[in-house]
Amino acid sequence: MAVEIEMRARFTKEAHDQLVARLKADGEDLGRDDKHIYFYVFPDRLLKVTDNTAAGTAKITLKGSKIGQGTAFAETEFAIAPADVPAAVKVFNALGFETTMHEAFNFRHNFRFDGVEIAVKWSEAWGYHAEFEILLDDGAADADRVEAAAKITNVAAELGVSLMTEQELADFTAAFEAAEKERKQEAPLIR
Amino acid sequence: MSTTPATANLIDLAAQGRLPLHQCMDHTTIAWIAGNQPDLPPAPRRTLRHTSQSLIKRAGVPPAWMADPRLYTSLHGVRHGMRTAALAAVLAEANGLDDADTATAIVAAAIHDCQRRHDKDDQGHGDRAAVWLAANADTVWGHFDITATPFRIVQAAAAVRLHDVPYTAFSTDDRSDHARAEHIVDVVKAADALDRYRLPKLKWWPDVRRVRQLAFDQFRSLAFDLVVISEKAQLAGASSPEAVRFALAEKGLV
């Protein structure tokens, strides 16, 4: 099981355009990576079925904590065929997880800048945002994790991006989950 | 679900006069549209009022509101409704309409085609949608988180009813309805016309002679970009509402 050190930022369209221009000029462009993701949100875990629509691959991922519960995410994942995505979702829904599920399309472009992978994205829930990530081995020492977080913080600062705090992330995801519940209700219609 | 044959594209079918009843965008057609970008001046940069932004973000109506669920993702489906609602907001604000009039135009624009039975020349679909709107007013206005009043329902229904009636074909009753909600009717008809860049023949694209809207030409490039961005996004895998809301964000409208 690998460990991701992940930090996030949300920003305006103008800030997005400036960031992308800087990354295209000074970073490594890793290409477009749009995804359709089915999220199953549990109190202390996150299960995802991801259809990598731009790459033509798919995977199932279990993260050992959810957004807003720290920057280190223990992660187990395995590839599946893109054609199997609907079946995977059907299985998890049939197991009783449907009420915890929401889905979203992520418009995503990946870059690497000074050793940090940066996914610049847009989704309905998050708007324009970016994920800064360093992948560590499972046995990485605490010092390595702290160093990775510091590296991400420095890179974000160099790019002029304000990273979200853990509290901001927790508040944001809680508000989104509450809005999702409300959204699923619509009044009947007269034909 | 499209009734377009899987191997066909709308460009070829339109050229052959064989467009099916239900028409869905395809990669060939959107590439053709993008490749025929008219030489248009950029639209004036406009930040919509907060109330307008909030309403156009809600313009993705539920599939259950469509008379035929196959139209939800077709050329007259929810993406067209959402883009028309956004363009109605832009035109309404450019015309100096207040929040209430702008909201009425947005609501009417969002649902104006919801009672179509197919994507071809479906006579009377405006009439049917107006009746449907009156019967479902509380639900529709509630979807936008605003309150329906009899005056606003009548105005929106007039815009919906007249959206598919050319000005030159207005009857006495049509002129009377138009007079009751002139600015709103004109904005909705123009917004609907601006979204014609999605259609697979150049001669069907926006034509200023069919509208009464001085600001029409200013927003052609915005309308074109909204079509190209949202249709490409939908073909890339986004849902229809996601695709249009992405286009709205890309153009700085929300």
TrEMBL record, chain A:
Residues 4-154 form the CYTH domain. Gene3D superfamilies: Hypothetical Protein Pfu-838710-001. InterPro entries: CYTH-like_dom_sf, CYTH_domain. Pfam families: CYTH (PF01928). It comes from the Bacteria. This is CYTH domain-containing protein. The lineage of its organism: Bacteria, Bacillati, Actinomycetota, Actinomycetes, Kitasatosporales.
Automatic annotation (TrEMBL), chain B:
SUPFAM superfamilies: HD-domain/PDEase-like (SSF109604). This is HD domain-containing protein.
